[in-house]
Amino acid sequence: MSDLRDEVQAGFQQRFDEAPDGVWSAPGRVNLIGEHTDYNDGFVLPFAINRRTLAALRLRDDRRIRLATSFADDTVEIELDTLAPKTIDGWAAYPLGVAWALGQGNADLGAVPGFDLYLDSDVPVGAGLSSSAAIECAVAVALNDVWRLGLDRRALVDAGHRAENDFVGAPTGILDQSASLLGQADSALFIDCRNFDTEVIPLGLEAAGLDVLVIDTRVNHAHADGGYASRRASCEAGAAALGVASLRELTKDDLLRARDTLDGETYRRVRHVVTENDRVLETVRLLRTEGPAAIGDLLDASHRSLRNDFEVSVPELDLAVETAQNYGALGARMTGGGFGGSAIALVPRHLISHVKVAVDGAFAEHGYAHPDMFTVVADEGARRDV
Description:
386 residues; alpha+beta; Alpha-Beta Plaits; 2 domains; eight-stranded mixed beta sheet
């Protein structure tokens, strides 16, 4: 982490010929369980990870914004007063969306100055670990500090969520920004997405001798693409047909009526959300009472539901999950919105190398790209680093 702090400051100096006023960071996240439930007012259980995006920033004496990153050669320049939704594409839309969104909430940006910003990160892009929310949240805490807005973490979650939904055009829920801003070390964050109640749930992985292995399939995905939006539309259509405000209102007892009311595809989407909410609640209960070694079957069931009912998995994710299960993982599932990205496996620490070798071999046998695999631990949320 110290090396990345040095690199982002050096990168800022090289691009803008001055030192930054400070460096802020925010983590990516792994969603332990609770997929596609957030925008249905349901339950989720993510945790922030020890992979972070860093934002070096310096205030200007005018209203201009200049953005640069280690991942692109260009420098994006725009006036603060001209920011508008869906007018900017690519990586710059995420930090600019946050600047715009802060002005749509309770903050008055009429007198704030522009800024120079440089981003660097070790959160893999397109891996389902929420690299976009890590950008949004690092920029949100930075601008909240330097513009002296005095906003609390919930308001910053709202700003990141608004940036992603309205500025970028990706119809995601609040899961990613919440985990990135509110995460705590060695803990998951239990979120009720209907009323934003949150509770820190200790994971106890170290004491149990378990690791969370991320298997990045290198199949890229983007939430702004049509597959994610179509799943959300199906959920909204199912709720409307069943006469409820959101799928959160339904229980397993309602599924018989749903099957008789809905077409087959919409029914499967609804069934995933209803059963996934139950799996989140049961995972929280088991973590409290029995510890992390007891949750493996729920992870497996979540993946089956995402594969069969919600249909957001891909062959590479299915292979990663199946291979990890066969070679010692207590449970495994895809994580994130799907259509690519990463799987996670809950693995006894002494079997990590064994699982990695098996997944490598399986991917090679199927002619898939070499996956990137690494363990993650639960980390704290967004903060100022320098």
